[in-house]
Design a protein that fits this description.
By secondary structure, the chain is of the alpha+beta class. Helix content is about 30%, strand content about 25%. It has a domain at about 380-465: PGBD-like superfamily/PGBD (Muramoyl-pentapeptide Carboxypeptidase, domain 1), CATH 1.10.101. Strand 9 and strand 10 (about 190-195) form a beta hairpin. The two termini are about 50 Å apart.
Length: about 475
């Protein structure tokens, strides 16, 4: 009889939500012939003597419980000890979850959740954004992959676990949370206010792009949830019924999710000739995983990636690149190559423990390295601008980073602000005035809060236009050229 084991494959697998913490968990069917690890059973009380090294822990517990000047919660002492043991591993993906956190996690595995729609992890002791979800409050507020969270509603995040931080970020729909953010390339931190909302888990979006007489199907996967593989297959079938001549799979900003989902998708795309991934055990033994598909797709396939493509997305990208030789286009992926398994402790709590590494078909471990695209394509400069934080109106003669971001936005919108160097020049003033007048604002030439809000709205709208998505356009051109050969 086949057994099942639970694997958390998403990058720290967290989405902050009012209904609970969402984590990328999956039931992975054991392949008996491949020797997949067996399920770790709930811990049972030991009837044997404590190992010598645990006598010290027991002694400390008894001393604190009996001698401390005030009454102590013995349960909290035990949970603190467990949390301390897990923290000593210095592994951002291993964590202790108390019963309340586990329940919140389980409650959040539905078709939707409430929160900001961003996935977070710990990286070198820093709380980082992995990626905001497509059209989520986090994305609309301007959060980006690799943003470091330094504070939540003004309180420092120093010493917080991912789960503790998640609880603080989580809240009811319609409420707001203020996140202190440090972003690469900025000397001053940002304060980004995000309004929580209900986040539907619709993860697959399909469309057909017809250009130069060629019909190319585009499947965007925003995360790997329970229904993702099913939706992917259905939408791919419909695309194939429309007789597409090429397929583009877009996993940009996809932070990962259910391992079973990405496996089921890969079994549609990867043949039996090579494994679609390998699992490396503690002993160093490598277990390959194969598809039983015999025929490759009758059309070329390409994959779009970026720095927000993580974990399960990297499994997909690595498999398609190495097993089938498909082309990756965009920028380097996040770099998360470990597998976590939640181990129940018998009282509703569990330890989410890193138990394995996953490797690409060729045996490459991409952890902290990411996967390099075959064709590197970056987005236009204004895609990397920062939200405008206006404390007082910006005007001619001033010089700071906020002005530089405004200049980058103005330039991307087709105005001529002069050099994007942070100095509010006469050219910048003229560009601001032109934008204000076109937007039916008072043409002061100064950037006040109203002007900043309008400029950000125009900037976001410009980024959402497909013609400005250089990575997408490059991928479509690549597939079109492939079809000509």
């Amino acid at each position: 009889m086949k057994k099942k084991w639970i694997t958390a494959i998403a990058v720290s697998s967290l989405i902050t939500g009012a209904g609970g913490t969402y984590a990328g968990m999956t039931l992975l069917e054991e392949k008996e012939e491949a020797g997949t690890p067996r399920e770790i059973q709930p811990a049972q009380p030991s009837k044997n003597k404590l190992p010598d090294e645990l006598h010290k822990v027991q002694t400390a517990y008894n001393i604190i419980a009996d001698k401390y000047v005030e009454e102590v919660d013995r349960t909290q002492l035990v949970e603190g000890a467990i949390d301390g043991m897990v923290s000593s591993l210095k592994d951002p993906y291993s964590a202790y979850m108390d019963a309340e956190t586990v329940k919140q996690f389980e409650d959040s595995l539905g078709s939707s959740f409430e929160g900001i729609g961003a996935e977070i992890t710990l990286e070198n002791g820093k709380l980082m954004i992995v990626a905001p979800f497509k059209d989520s409050p986090a994305e609309k507020a301007g959060l980006k992959p690799k943003d470091e969270i330094t504070s939540i509603n003004g309180d420092s995040v120093n010493g917080l676990t991912v789960f503790e931080a998640t609880k603080k970020i989580r809240g009811k729909k319609g409420t707001t949370v203020k996140l202190g953010i440090i972003r690469k390339g900025m000397t001053k931190p940002l304060t980004i206010e995000v309004k929580r909302d209900k986040i539907p888990i619709e993860t697959v979006f399909a469309k057909v792009k017809s250009e130069n007489g060629k019909s190319i199907g585009v499947l965007e996967i925003t995360s790997f949830s329970e229904e993702t593989a099913k939706d992917f297959k259905q939408k791919l079938k419909k695309l194939e019924e429309k007789e597409i001549e090429g397929l583009l799979i877009d996993v940009r900003g996809n932070p990962g999710g259910f391992l079973s989902s990405v496996e089921d998708i890969l079994k549609e795309l990867v043949t039996e000739n090579k494994p679609y991934m390998q699992i490396e055990e503690k002993s160093g033994r490598k277990v390959p995983y194969f598809s039983d598909t015999k025929k490759v797709k009758p059309y070329p396939v390409a994959v779009l990636t970026d720095e927000g493509s993580a974990s399960a997305s990297e499994i997909l990208a690595g498999a398609l690149k190495e097993a089938e030789g498909y082309t990756l286009i965009g920028t380097k992926t996040f770099g998360k190559g470990t597998v976590q398994q939640p181990v129940p402790l018998g009282d509703g709590s569990n330890i989410k423990l890193t138990t394995h590494k996953w490797l690409t078909p060729n045996g490459n471990w991409i952890h902290t390295k990411g996967i390099e695209p075959n064709i590197e394509v970056k987005q236009p400069d204004y895609f990397y601008a920062h939200p405008l934080q206006i404390e007082k109106p910006l005007e001619s003669g001033m010089n700071n980073e906020v002005i530089e971001s405004a200049q980058i936005m103005l330039k991307g919108l087709g105005y001529g602000p002069g050099k994007a160097d942070g100095y509010y020049s006469k050219e910048t003033e003229q560009a601001v005035r032109a934008m204000q007048l076109k937007s039916r604002l008072k043409g002061t030439g100064k950037i006040d809060k109203q002007t900043a809000e309008k400029l950000e709205q125009l900037w976001v709208a410009e980024m959402k236009k497909e013609k400005n998505d250089l990575q997408l356009q490059a991928a479509l051109i690549f597939l079109q050229e492939k079809l000509k050969r």
